[in-house]
């Protein structure tokens, strides 16, 4: 069986996300969850995910509504990119925000994260990635992993652009220091409710590596603000069709340590 880290983003953004991810973890489908510690995720829900064997990571955030409220500044993705690449993004602010989000994660879970990634992949941007590496050396030794957006094969223009925004620089820096991450990255699409999820997942699962691949997803039980794609993702990931696709391509959802979850359900 191939081991694939199936990571759900945005836990803490809304209860509809948290509940969907918790259900998919309980079913052994989602094996890793990225937590927005600026939000208000339920501690008991996070603890239940951990008991099932799922890994929990920090979803580093500078651009969501949660971040806008926490930092009293409305930072769009485009403006963050401009400041990061122009050298005007404050390294002191970034490090303070990162430390604060890590500390809040520890308050919610009682421990440091198993991994770190970024909302809208901001963790790989200039200035932010330097602060991230410094924080890893301060807090985590070599235990905390970092999500790479580098894909082993062509997975579309959007995926290529995301990787170009700092994946190579971040991975090289981490490898020199002995940190590890995922070997492959998939799950990028246009986040449209009309997307052909069965076709997309067939392509990703068919080409998943033997170990170390990571596929991101964004499930939710309901649409609370014009993001109907989240409901579609939840419905598909919870479906018999998805389980059959995994069986067809001999793919098993595992956490970052390569372990299957406690409640994996057999294909009927």
TrEMBL record:
CDD domains given in the database record: YdjC_like_3
Molecular function per GO: deacetylase activity; hydrolase activity; metal ion binding
Domain of life of the source: Bacteria
GO biological process: carbohydrate metabolic process
SUPFAM superfamilies: Glycoside hydrolase/deacetylase
Record Pfam families: YdjC
Alphabetically ordered keywords of this record: Carbohydrate metabolism, Hydrolase, Magnesium, Metal-binding
Metal-binding is among the record's keywords: yes
Cofactor(s) required, per the database record: Mg(2+)
Name the UniProt record assigns to this protein: ChbG/HpnK family deacetylase
Species of origin: Massilia eburnea
